[in-house]
Amino acid sequence: MSSDSSAAKQSTKAPLRLPLHWLGAAPFAIFVLLFLIMPTMRIVIGAFQTPDGGFTLDNIRGLFTTSIMSAYWISIKISIASALLGCLIGFSVAAAVVLGGLPKWIRGPLLTFSGVASNFAGVPLAFAFLATLGPVGLVTVFLKTQLGIDLRALGFNILSFWGLTVTYLFFQIPLMILIITPALDGLKREWREAAQILGATNAQYWRMVAFPILLPSFLGTLALLFANAFGAVATAIALTGSSLSIVPILLFAQIRGDVLGNPHLGYALAFGMIVVTGIANTIYIWLRARSERWLK
Fold first, then answer.
1. pLDDT digits over 207-220, tens only?
2. Does 136 reside within a domain?
3. End-to-end CA distance of the chain
4. What's the pTM value of the predicted model, to 2 decimals?
5. Domain holding 252: CATH number?
6. Of the candidates 238, 268, 239, 227, which has an alpha carbon nearest to the alpha carbon of residue 251?
7. How many Cα atoms sit within 13 Å of 137 on the Cβ side?
8. How far out from the chain centre does Cα 232 lie?
């Protein structure tokens, strides 16, 4: 009896412990819930609603009109072009710093600048490129007056497809550098030495050893850069306005409250962007996981 009573007393005295180890993650969870999950669910629900709140598929059908499909196609082409150029240029810069003969002190400032530039977008970025490569921009005027090169006569316009693509490269290239540098650091010296012992040239080492290992990281970053460009809204609106019909600009026109605007069609446009960027990010996560198996 005494043992049973003492055990009962101990059980009643045992304090209820809260899972305090989750307390540190609570602010992040609240932030994600309020500013990511709930707005996303609002967009998804609104894409299938009428102004009265009823269920409809008309908003989704509206995405397949000629003008909207053309806007999606232009956005996809800009995203592919900026992602490909960003990957190629960023990979070349990162390889030169990590594996090339550049001084080691360059790496720190380069990665610091890349961390800042990869998040530099919106109105400041649009203004910077207009002031540099716009019709009366610094570089445009200098080339025309000093070297006799007229960018407008050559077909370049900052408010065009290639103008927006070049603008996107300002944050695409640094993002590629930040992501691919750890992958280049993961290439073990023993792999190169083993290839050289077996008689492989430098080109054969890259083609048969290094590049297959880096390929998942490269393709994954390509998918991430595509999603990054496809979802860029502020830069495109601030730079081109209504002169270039891409999805973010159409989305802005639908939800800004004009008499011709249709907020629920805007929700459908945003829902389509979520699907496209979601697929791209899923590909990135899958390829990133594959590359980490080799680089561990």
1. 888 888 888 889 98
2. yes
3. 59
4. 0.83
5. 1.10.3720.10
6. 268
7. 20
8. 8
